[in-house]
Amino acid sequence: MKFEESKVLQHLPKQFFASLVAKVNAKAASGADVINLGQGNPDQPTPDFIVKAMQQATADPTDHKYSQFRGMPRLKQAAADFYKREYGVTLDPEKEVAILGGSKIGLVELPFALLNPGDTMLLPDPGYPDYLSGVALAQVKLELMSLSSANQYLPDYQQLDPKVVERAKLMYLNYPHNPTGAVATPKFYEETVQFAKEHHIGVVQDFAYGAIGFNGKRPVSFMQTPGAKDVGIETYTLSKSYNMAGWRIGFAVGNADMIEAINLIQDHLFVSVFPAIQDAAVAALNSDQSSVKSLVALYQKRRDDFYAAARKIGWEPYPSGGAFYAWMPVPKGYTSEQFADVLLDKAAVAVAPGNGFGKSGEGYVRVGLLIDEPRFTEACERIGKLGLF
Fold it and tell me: What positions does the domain Aminotransferase class I/classII large occupy (predicted)?
């Protein structure tokens, strides 16, 4: 017997990162010494105190049972305490915090939870490709907000089509921004709250890289903006802040109605997250954050080292303010994908083509700051020998 995938699955977007990994693996399999700058997977180990908290929790028989459907109260309290301590934001842990098995789950399931088939949502372009998965699965309509360096990769709400704005019911933001490393300002978030209230649009701010800011400037939380909880939520993941990408744990905070919608859909999809992982997350959030500060310092050094090596070959970066990426222009005569293919084929250097993040990403490639300085220098030396700059 042969079974066909549903029409919904047949209309899912191509998984960009899976395709990228396949290309890199094929080059490495040929025997090439590939310097992989295309990944977004943290390369440092999870801090030891978090690992030990997990080890202790796994030995506790009470953690072997089903988790509470909507997450353990102590993790929701830890998330609320974290936002109060780090951002000065007061949250009700029961009504304004939802536990997620990684923030990607929340970002993909939210269109199901808040929209009906045929409704319209706004997404940033360029942006995280997996946002598109939620669009396809929920069978909603998509309108893109084109971002450019001229406006620091922030949406210009005045330039959006009024007819599109009138139809829109949900909007995603992501700062610090993947793939560009752009950061939002308090003024922009104030404009966002005003725009959302005026047009009755729910806001979802993806704060995956919230801990990672450069030159002593800490990224701003959307929740710090007056009125933010009236219009939206913010999703936070422990993947980047604590090198816990494989652990799959995060949370959403903010508007109580949106949080309830997340909890309701997750009541039907999951039985929350393995309790021991939640205990480890509590240890991370309640810590003194010294491990995070050390990690940010490492990414700052890597960014500066890569920028210096790139500039030596005439390759000038877009100035990143956060996240762990460098957003690099493509030389004249190449598309993003062509340039990425040339680097992989001729220099055995892997980068992520900008057009994989949306039409407005064309003309750039994304470099992950997830290797140490000697390999950055070697990568730029290999690229320099191609004579493209």
Answer: 33-383
CA-nearest of 198, 258, 266, 189 to 228 is 189
| Neighbour-count burial of 134, counting CB atoms closer than 10 A to its CB (0-12 exposed, 13-18 middle, 19+ buried) | buried
24, two tokens: 């890199």
Helix (H) or strand (E) holding 231: helix 228-231
Indicate the pTM of the whole model: 0.95
- Maximum C-alpha span of the chain: 62
Q: What is the mean pLDDT of residues 45-55?
A: 98
Distance between CA atoms of 388 and 332, rounded to whole angstroms? 8
CATH 1.20.950.20 holds for 7-45+291-385? no
Question: What pLDDT digit, counting tens, does each position of 174-227 carry?
Answer: 999 999 999 999 999 999 999 999 999 999 999 999 999 999 999 999 999 999
N-to-C CA span, the chain: 56
- 3-state SS, one letter per residue, for 147-163: CCHHHCCCCCHHHCCHH
Report cis status (omega within 30 of 0) of the bond before 42. Answer: no
CA 147/CA 127 separation, integer angstroms? 9
Q: Which CATH number fits domain 65-286: 3.40.640.10, 3.60.20.10, 3.40.720.10, 2.40.40.10?
A: 3.40.640.10
